[in-house]
From TrEMBL:
It catalyses: a CDP-1,2-diacyl-sn-glycerol + sn-glycerol 3-phosphate = a 1,2-diacyl-sn-glycero-3-phospho-(1'-sn-glycero-3'-phosphate) + CMP + H(+). This is CDP-diacylglycerol--glycerol-3-phosphate 3-phosphatidyltransferase. Its main location: membrane. PANTHER family: CDP-DIACYLGLYCEROL--GLYCEROL-3-PHOSPHATE 3-PHOSPHATIDYLTRANSFERASE 1, CHLOROPLASTIC (PTHR14269:SF62), CDP-DIACYLGLYCEROL--GLYCEROL-3-PHOSPHATE 3-PHOSPHATIDYLTRANSFERASE-RELATED (PTHR14269). It comes from the Bacteria. It comes from Paenibacillus aceti. It holds the Pfam family CDP-OH_P_transf. This protein catalyzes the committed step to the synthesis of the acidic phospholipids. It is a multi-pass membrane protein. It is found in: Membrane. InterPro entries: CDP-alcohol_PTase-I (IPR050324), CDP-OH_P_trans (IPR000462), CDP-OH_PTrfase_TM_dom (IPR043130), CDP_ALCOHOL_P_TRANSF_CS (IPR048254), Phosphatidylglycerol_P_synth (IPR004570). The keyword Transcription does not apply. Pathway: Phospholipid metabolism; phosphatidylglycerol biosynthesis; phosphatidylglycerol from CDP-diacylglycerol: step 1/2; Lipid metabolism. The keyword Transferase applies.
Length: 195
């Protein structure tokens, strides 16, 4: 197994570790980290750092694979799967912790399933749907929004600026728009598949 695929697998294996720190409330690691009026359980800080590290490996594995000509079919399968698992796990956890609305998680996760389905139909028809600029913007805004929610809006909480709330709204809007954009630009795939 090559280096980019190992990095992708490491991202997948970081997901359950993140969930353990985020969702299990053991007394020895749930002490509050306080800075003035801001507070965050230490285990949530560790979970947020794991999420940020895992999310940052997405660009690293792709860059290495393209630069060293190590692009494989396994990598093409694992990379988007790892991204979707990471975002879905974090969003569902945030809903469970009452830090995000359930409908936001449903919209974002549903879009991921829909676009994945479209890509699979395209593959069956012999074409590949490349990532769009809106798809990349969706990923960036989701990562920023989830990170801000995991960190309890740090450091913006000090100035009472709802950065995390604004970012999750922005991520949801861009997620919906990018999903529509994929389907509009690739409607020929769906028409062809009906034949």
């Amino acid at each position: 197994m090559n280096l980019p695929n190992r990095i992708t697998l490491a991202r997948i294996f970081m997901i359950p570790l993140m969930l353990v720190f985020l969702l299990f409330d053991f007394e020895w690691w749930s002490h509050e980290l306080s800075l003035g009026s801001y507070s965050l359980p230490v285990n949530h800080l560790i979970a947020a750092l794991l999420f940020i590290i895992a999310a940052s490996t997405d660009g690293i594995d792709g860059h290495i694979a393209r630069k060293r000509n190590l692009v494989t079919n396994l990598g093409k399968l694992l990379d988007p799967l790892a991204d979707k698992l990471l975002v879905a796990a974090a969003l569902i956890s945030l809903v469970a912790l009452d830090k995000a609305n359930g409908w936001v998680a449903v919209i974002i996760i549903s879009r991921e399933f829909a676009v994945t389905g479209l890509r699979e139909v395209a593959l069956l028809e012999g074409s590949v749907i490349a990532a769009s600029k809106w798809g990349k913007a969706k990923t960036v805004t989701q990562i920023i929004a989830i990170s801000a929610l995991l960190l309890n809006n740090f450091p913006f909480e000090w100035i009472a600026f709802p950065f995390a709330d604004i970012m999750i709204w922005l991520a949801t809007i861009i997620t919906v728009y990018s999903g529509i954009d994929y389907f509009v630009k690739n409607k020929h795939v769906l028409k062809f598949s009906k034949m």
